[in-house]
Amino acid sequence: MLYAAVDLGGSSGRVTVGQLSGEKIVLTEVHRFKHEPVQNSDGLFWDWQFIIEQVKAGLLAATKLGEVVSVGVDSWAVDYGLIDKAGDVIGQPHCYRDGRTDGVMAKLKQDLGVDYIYGKTGIQFIFFNTMYQLFVEKNTAAYQKADKFLMVPDLINYLLCGSVSTEITNASTTQLLNVHTRDWDWELIEKLGIKKELFPKINKPGQQMGVVTGHGKLDGIKVISVGSHDTASAVAGTPLPVAGTAAYISSGTWSLVGLELKQPVTGKKAMDFNITNEMGVDDRIRFIKNVAGMWLIEESLDYWAAKGEKYTAAELAKAAESLPK
Q: Cα(100)–Cα(198) distance, rounded to whole angstroms?
């Protein structure tokens, strides 16, 4: 039996299958692809149809290796899609790098207070957080038509099996989840003027969301909720001591440096350092700091390629080893 995993980063995606072989887990990557956001007159958007096509292509490749029992999906944080009352996806999800939230974070920090926001959510202040995206979304036609918003991995689950639910690890990155109650912070949402009916119920990793339906050869595969923020799944797969005495670095488009804790830390010192308290698997807290990641390498490779100089990340790493220490 095979178990499929869809892992989407901010510049690439992959589909991997895992199977048990004795006491070992054997992983096989069956599909990998790069993707880029698309700029148009309305802003910067993810190439959503392309991403969906690549996810399905990867899952179809997985089925050629044997029976795929289940699939779990994780992705980058903060971005979302909207669905209307008829269940249709409204347009393409905005990319967090879009400039539509410029100045919004400073305004809301002043209006609501940094202590108030951080004390409730424990989430770092970054200008593209979902909170600021939904705040500016209020003036759009898409918002007026929307019945629910779904984070990127939840939106893929919805397209696969029809589930309308938000997994908690990615929900926490919205800056709209109360880190103490582990539920949407309805008071904060009301102060922001965001309509409460947009918010779906919250689920936790391990829940079965449904089975794939309407996708031909993929039909019947169980859709399982996982740590849908990619870092949550990465940390869950790391053998950290239960006591929370070990640090980790998870490097993707961003690099995340931090600890895994049992309880959030939302005091002034943590706030001043802008450290985030994101939910992890098994109700743990990912106490982390965002720093520059592999996106710098990806952008550099693209820049050189445009000038006719083609390198791989492995070649750059090898060249770096030869530099003076």
A: 20
Taking a C-beta distance cutoff of 8 angstroms, is the pair 79, 154 a contact? no
- The C-alpha atoms of residue 301 and residue 298 are separated, in whole angstroms, by 5
3-class DSSP state of 200 = coil
Name the E strands within the chain.
2-8, 12-21, 24-34, 38-40, 43-45, 68-74, 80-84, 89-90, 146-151, 166-167, 177-178, 183-184, 202-203, 208-211, 222-224, 247-251, 254-261, 276-279, 285-292
d(CA 216, CA 63): 12
Which residues are the active-site residues?
A: 230
Pairing mode, strands 276-279 and 285-292 = antiparallel
Q: What is the pLDDT along the chain (325 residues), one digit of tens a residue?
A: 999 999 999 889 999 999 999 889 999 999 999 999 999 999 999 999 999 999 999 999 999 999 999 999 999 999 999 999 999 999 999 999 999 999 999 999 999 999 999 999 999 999 999 999 999 999 899 999 999 999 999 999 999 999 999 999 999 999 999 999 999 999 999 999 999 999 999 999 999 999 999 999 999 999 999 999 999 999 998 888 876 677 898 887 778 899 999 999 999 999 999 999 999 999 999 999 988 888 788 889 989 999 999 999 889 889 889 888 7
Task: State the DSSP string of 54-72.
Answer: HHHHHHHHHHTTS-EEEEE
Contacts of 220 (CB under 8 A, 6+ apart): 211, 212
Residues in Cβ contact with 130 at an 8 Å cutoff, skipping those fewer than 6 apart:
78, 79, 80, 151, 173, 174, 175, 176
Residue 1, number of CB atoms within 10 A of its CB: 11
What tokens appear for 76 in the block?
Answer: 């980058």
Residue 7 tokens, joined? 């892992």
